[in-house]
Amino acid sequence: MSRKEFEVAAEAAVLALGLSRAKDLAGLLAQGRTRERALTELATPGISAVVEKLYDVLQTESVPVTEAAAYVRGYVAAMLRARDAVQVRTVWSGPSTPAVPVRATAQVLIEVINEARDELLAMTYAARPYPALTRALTEAAARGVKTHVVVETLAGAHGLLSGREPADAFVSVPGLRLWHWARESAGNAHSRQHAKLAVADRRMLFLGSANLTESAARRNIEAGVMVRGGEAPRRAAEHIVELQRLGILRPFRT
Questions:
Q1: What is the spatial distance between Cα 173 and Cα 193, in angstroms, rounded to a whole number?
Q2: Nearest to residue 50, comparing CAs of 92, 84, 14, 79?
Q3: Cβ atoms within 10 A of the Cβ of 136, count?
Q4: Residue 211: closest CA among 101, 114, 105
Q5: Which pLDDT tens digit goes with each residue over 18-65?
Q6: Which CATH fold topology does 87-251 show?
Q7: Which residues contact residue 160 at a Cβ distance below 8 angstroms, ignoring those fewer than 6 apart?
Q8: C-alpha atoms less than 13 angstroms from C-alpha of 96 in its C-beta half-sphere
Q9: From CA 135, how far away is CA 143, in angstroms rounded?
Q10: Which of 49, 56, 61, 138 sits at 20 to 30 Å (Cα–Cα) from 194?
Q11: Across residues 195-201, what is the average pLDDT?
Q12: How far is residue 49 from each of residues 17, 46, 137, 195, 248, measured CA to CA in Å?
């Protein structure tokens, strides 16, 4: 029988503890150790709340500790398999060499967009209208993909960007939500939103030097890394969403 609240609490505990310490948690559950003993044994900064929550849910949903231990062990095993299945490859654009095949960054960006089925998150410093990219984003919108793009602003760039706002490159894409870094402290006055990445469905991450411009995608020497599977895509997406939730990233108003 599915116990959704327990599953959520168990997964949160595993993610907070890490795989090695999560195995220790499973052992404590299998031995029927008390909440207090578990908190003492797993004295890792920042994990008390998730362990407390797990023990609370064990009571409210009447989950036997042996079942809880088996679930945690199974979840750890699944994460280990997923970690082992991670695919990482480098992506270069520009002049090629015999040793390293070059694949246009534009192709990889569009590959990420085309694979998205639910969520697409991207960040860029500069952006200019680029028909191939706009077409891929528009097709993603037609599939129902929720797309969020974080851009730098002319004001935020303090003269290092010129012309139209980077956000203008995306205005023709239906439903796309634009965000920017809301700098409020004096210490951030000369900071830049310089991240360049795209994450599809929290399972595919492209991280590199290229801005979302045609010159960066097709003509420049650019380097990046494509990651499929594992924690990196999920963690990248979670970080962006948390920055939005905290108001550090805010909707861009045209």
A1: 22
A2: 14
A3: 21
A4: 105
A5: 888 899 999 999 999 998 998 888 876 677 888 899 999 999 998 999
A6: Endonuclease; Chain A (3.30.870)
A7: 192
A8: 9
A9: 13
A10: 138
A11: 95
A12: 11, 7, 40, 32, 25
